[in-house]
Amino acid sequence: MTSTSLARTLLVANQKGGVGKSSLVSALGSLVAASGRKVLLVDSDQQANLTNSDLGAEGDRGRSLGMTLQYGEPLVPLTDVRENLDLIPGGPVLAAVSATAALSEQ
Question: Is residue 9 part of a domain?
Fold first, then answer.
């Protein structure tokens, strides 16, 4: 069995803030990474709670994810935030993505 056959994707989402999404993702990602599996977490929140508060990482303020979503640029993860755990940081730059998406729908 190859490692790609074991790949899994999990999305944690809720419109309401403060329900524990970031904390849950941080805990689950850290548990899986601690078991030796490679993990990539994506913080798609403008507040970057997963990036800053939960993982204590210095991110790019959401620039990489924003540029990927808007212009198709390659994602640039922070590597080895924890052993076996990489991160696509969130941050306020993602506000521009929301605004652009809202305008394009009109």
Answer: no
